[in-house]
């Protein structure tokens, strides 16, 4: 995964049933985008966009020659793999974040979902989960189990910025910000 954007427009906390729709929303020569929309029976609504780099058997980026049945849903939309979130600002609060063996995926890297654990932990009590918000995460370089991860955190106007750093290299950046109601 290269990047992900999640917009919680109306938290689905009152919904008994939700409908999830997903489709391929765009493509590039080495990447594809996936869109998911969640709609609840009581008004919950969440939108998610993610960009994925296509890897070959050698785990290096590889051109997508045939997009097969997914080509139609892209409607010819081109996507970018350019990272958008800035690195940590000077003066960010720093704290260690230990990795666990349970954070690993089948390639031995930290699973994409595990990056959200410190984001949620640092947000606890700072954001009303019923309020609309946007969360974004740019994956720059993979984290590995032996890495000594330092979180660089900054907050301003209800926004949380969090960078995952290893030996001074920013590996990933997350940003969570409130949306207007």
Output the strand order for the largest sheet. Answer: 2-3-4-1-6-9-8-7-5
Helix-strand pattern, N to C? EEEEHEHEEEE
Describe the largest sheet.
Answer: 9 strands, antiparallel
Report the end-to-end length measured between terminal Cα atoms: 29 Å
Helix fraction bin = under 10%
Sequence stretches where pLDDT stays below 50 over 5 or more residues: none
CATH C-level category of the largest domain = Alpha Beta
Give the overall shape, derived from the CA principal axes. Answer: globular
Q: Which strand-content bin applies to the residues?
A: 35-45%
Number of helices: 2
CATH topology descriptor of the largest domain: Thiol Ester Dehydrase, Chain A
CATH architecture of the largest domain: Roll
User: How many beta-strand runs?
Assistant: 9
Average pLDDT = 92
What is the name of the CATH superfamily of the largest domain? Answer: Hotdog Thioesterase
